Amino acid sequence: MPNIQRIFINGEIQHLFNRGVEKRDIFMEDSDRFRFIFCLYECNDANFVIMRNRINDRIFRKNYIGATYANLPAFQTKRELLVEIVAFVLMGNHYHLVVRQLVDGGISLFMKKLSNSYTGYFNDKYERKGVGALFQGRFKSVHVKGDGQFLHLIEYLFSNPVEIIEPEWKMRGAQDVQKAIEFVNDYKWSSYQDSIGVKNFPSVTEREFLWQVFGANKGIDAGQKNIKEYVAEWIQNKKFLFPGLSLE
């Protein structure tokens, strides 16, 4: 059966997600998570990306901190963004992204680059040559319509890591609510900390739209505060208000 081309509209919010083939883990250790986030940043570029050069560029510049950059060779041209990454979260065997497409075909090209780059890295590192795909088919996408759906999606995504310490929490609610909230607040492998004003991976996401929807018309601080409060409330009330909800 031929692939059906998916059409994404510029400026519209899309929830993108995928998991490992046969639900296998796609992140074995923290270095894998760092690499995926690095790919999120570097693959969001319409220019041809040679990841080896991008990595060498980072290492080179890091070793010359304080030098005059004008006298240093540049390996990469100015990035031409394909999408605006609004939010992300990495779990053991899957990931979630919330993006807005900036140019025609931007989502499809970005996701192709991301999948190919990370799969190549993973297969080489873990000696999976000839094994085939890492991900479970094409990435899945859901068009997010309206602020209400967007609010619930963000709350759901940012609270998702609770399942690491309480695997059944989505069905029965968190048994230790405070511990779950603290775990999410400290969880490094998402854009949640950046969204509440704690610097983590700030260059990967654009958060102005996120803050605006969460009430930043009263100031960015208000948007950040509301995100933190809404996520905590979601965790606290999940078993009463949202039984059976799944966006994966």
Report the major sheet.
4 strands, antiparallel
CATH topology of the largest domain: Alpha-Beta Plaits
Count the beta strands.
4
Are there runs of 5+ residues with pLDDT below 50, and where? 241-248
Query: What is the CA–CA distance across the termini?
Result: 24 Å
For this structure, what is the CATH homologous superfamily of the largest domain? Transposase IS200-like
- Write down the Rg: 19 Å
What is the helix/strand order? EHHEEHEHHHHHHH
Beta-strand content bin: 5-15%
- Secondary structure: helix percent: 40-55%
- For the largest sheet, list the strands in their spatial order: 2-3-1-4
Brief digest:
This protein has 248 residues and is an alpha+beta fold.
Describe this structure in words.
This protein has 248 residues and is an alpha+beta fold. It has 2 domains: 9-144, Alpha-Beta Plaits; 145-248, no CATH class. 44% of the residues lie in helices and 11% in strands. Strands 2-3-1-4 form a 4-stranded antiparallel sheet. A hairpin with a 3-residue loop joins strand 2 and strand 3 (94-101). Helix 1 packs antiparallel against helix 3 (106-125). It is globular, with a radius of gyration of 19 Å.
